[in-house]
Structures are given as C-alpha cells and as structure tokens.
C-alpha cells in the first residue's frame, strides 16, 4: 500500500448523500481503494429523505489519527 491515496484523492473524505444503494457503493469503493471508516456515520432527515454521511481516512493516516 502506498503512502498516498490513488488518483490524487485527499487523505480524508466526507462522503454524503441520500441513504440508498448508490451511497453504500461509494463507501464500499473507498474501502476497496484502501480507505478506512473514520468515526461514526451520521444521518439526518431533510423533510423528504434520509441523508447520511460517513468520513473515510486513507489507511496511511490510521496510526496518527484518533480512532472513533
């Protein structure tokens, strides 16, 4: 595993979107690239749908970050 994320991606990403299969696939893709979940997921309701958020952190940073 390299020290840097692929394709110029940042080390930290906050993924957000409607709570649907597309969002789950986006999170899964980040995990497959080598990111790890960071912190707990968050959810809110915008009056029409549930919106979720999940932070991911490039695994090279795991040793330096506070794990939640």
Characterize the structure shown.
- This protein is an alpha+beta fold and 68 residues long.
- The protein contains one helix and three strands; from the N terminus they run βαββ.
- It has one helix spanning 21-33, and strands at residues 12-18, 35-45, 50-58.
- A three-stranded antiparallel beta sheet has the order 1-3-2, covered by helices on one side.
- The longest helix has 13 residues, at 21-33.
- The model is unreliable at 61-68 (pLDDT under 50).
| Count of runs of 4 or more consecutive helical residues | 1
- Order of strands in the sheet with the most strands? 1-3-2
Oligomer: single chain
Uncertain runs with pLDDT below 50, 5 residues or more?
Answer: 61-68
Quick check: average pLDDT?
Answer: 89
Q: Whole-number radius of gyration?
A: 13 Å
DSSP summary, beta strand count? 3
Shape: elongated
Work out the helicity level.
10-25%
Order of helices and strands: EHEE
What structural class do helix, strand and pairing data support? alpha+beta
Biggest beta sheet summary: 3 strands, antiparallel
Distance between the termini: 23 Å
Report the sheet-strand fraction.
35-45%
In short:
This protein is α+β, with helices and mostly antiparallel strands and 68 residues long. Helix content is 19%, strand content 40%.
